[in-house]
Amino acid sequence: MGGTASAPQAADTSAQEDALKKKGGSPLPVEDFVLKESRGCTDIMFLLFYIAFWGLMIYIGIVAFMNGDPSRLISGYDFNGNICGQGSKANYPYLYYPNPWPNASTGNPDLTWAVCVKSCPYETRKPPDMCTVSFSVQTEQTFLSSPKNITCGGGSEGRTDMSQFSPADLLLYTGFAKYCMQRLPVCICSPSQNATNGPQCCDGSNRQQYLNGVPQTVPNAAPAATILGFKVGYQYGFCFYTYPSMTVSSLTRCLPVPVGTKTAGSANATVGASFLSSLPADTGAANQTALLTFDSGLQSVLDAASNPQAAFSSLVHEVNVNKWVIVGSAGIALLVSLAYTQLLRFTARITTYTLLVALWLLLAAASVIMAVKSGLIQPSQVPAVIGSTAESITLPSGLTNGSAQTNQNLLSIATGVVGLTFVLYTVFLCVMISRISMALEVIEQAANCVRCMPLALVFPVLQWVALCGLFVWWVFVFVYLASSGSWDPVTRTFSWNDTIRRAIIYHFFGLLWGRAMILAVGNLIIAGATVQWFLSPDQKILSSPMLSSTIRSCRYHLGTAAFGSFLIAVVQFIRWVFRYYVYQVNKMNKDNRIVKILTCIGECCLSCLERFLNFVNKNAYIQTSIEGTNFCTSAVAAFNLLLRNFLRLGALTIVSSIFLQFGKVFIAVCTGFIAALIIVGGSMNNISEAPVFSITIVMLLAFAVGSAFMDVWVRIILLARIAP
To answer: Looking at per-residue confidence, does 686 or 361 come out higher?
Structure first.
């Protein structure tokens, strides 16, 4: 009976091999799929290197937490380095620029002269009396009066009691300019500041120095700042002449009010006309040209609020408002992923066909909504508060709100990406429907494996927790690193030294390597469990393949995971460096076609290299799980195996990979849609008002969660395609 039974089996095997050769492949030797029990540690040197690398990462994080101050990135700081809304400036949350207009000699504004104020001054004070720090000055001996101490500032909203000045000093406000604008107080530094006494110590909390009852001051050697011929103050001084300003949502800066804005309670009077009429008589003729000069100050502050650091601060504010929705979206993505994978596990074919239609509808709806919203954002308008009145201000011609422009640009890009995805997806459905059916057969085979290993769907949750922990750690350390610069009293700014720059680069590479390592370990564990299931003579009696694979991978092959993930991280790091230099080149000449062509070629080549390494790595981990060999040996063996069966595996790899990528997109789009509904209060009519950046973060987070789940299917399907 044994001989009789073996003849049909041999005939079936021969027929399978003939059919396989016709499809362009070669038989896969059974010895290639024998799980090796006796094995040793692989790539141990790379594991030690990875541990040492993370030791330095933790050290950098500790130093960053000790020296950084993230509030400086958002709140801004005055010309002495005091953070607005913090410490001695706790009651002064807004940053005000006394002279935001372009310098007459350089043509550029110097916004290093910044002061913290309780509220943005709207009325133009006549006479000028604004001082952000109260200090005393002794007047000079005159024929009519003896020296006396007067106080600059100290009143409501920093006002100065002008009755202290003599009638002669009140003439054309020369007294305020002479004693308050042109003098700087000398304050006693606290011992912890470890600095000499001087104006830099006067932050409102330190006591002014007196000598024999005379308040100590020094001349302000900085040049006088002027507007329309009038001296508004002396650079880096505490007292100055105010101009009409306003606050803008998401910014803690005071912006000059456009001169054409109507004044409150008047149908004809404008802010510009009121401002000009309040200036002293010695300013000369004021005309429309002068008003345009005034508006240039508004553009200067808008530009300052639109630089990378300020734009980052604005986006941080938006994220802070919606932070709980963003955090909750991770749980939403987790539930959507679990629901989708469970449906795929039991009803692979029905679920996938339903997904195809649902994803097409979601992409179509998202394209329409985003296209509509991109036309609603107006960069020429800002929601402002002038005095106590909230209104939408139209900026003068040629001026734009940087935050709104950033949102419009982001939305335009997102609209193009989603629209292009919708078109490509529609073409894909029309052209590849037969290949989709073939891929579904493989997915059903993988579903059988998943049904027998339910823990395979729990593992992505652990990966998700690890990735979230890594990302949270990285963000916190990065924010503290970015805010750990030292104060430069010469440039009046916080600056990074070379050590901080190197630490930020090192920290960024740590994020890439850490993420790649978590995914690599997951690849090893899933590959080991799947191989064990496929090679088991009786899957019904198989005991805990996920647990045994986890123990085997962590005990012997963490070094291999560190090696493979390091290669991926290096390529990703090169891509980011390439993007940075492209960004710098585009800033100098963004319309250069040669640069655009070279950028496209470089990005395409690096992307292909990364995808190739990812593909080789996943197959190398399969070989390591089977044979217990190191990374290089496994990669060569995997490459040869794939090369021998290129045609057999190529079509199914492309079709199933594209299909599973759409599963990730489906999870991301569903999560983003739900989060947008939550943010706008559940109203479908207002869904286009959802903030772009926050929803982008939600969708990226959901895509990462979906990737962790769908990657389980990718690994199992890969084994299903090549297993004998």
So the answer is: 361
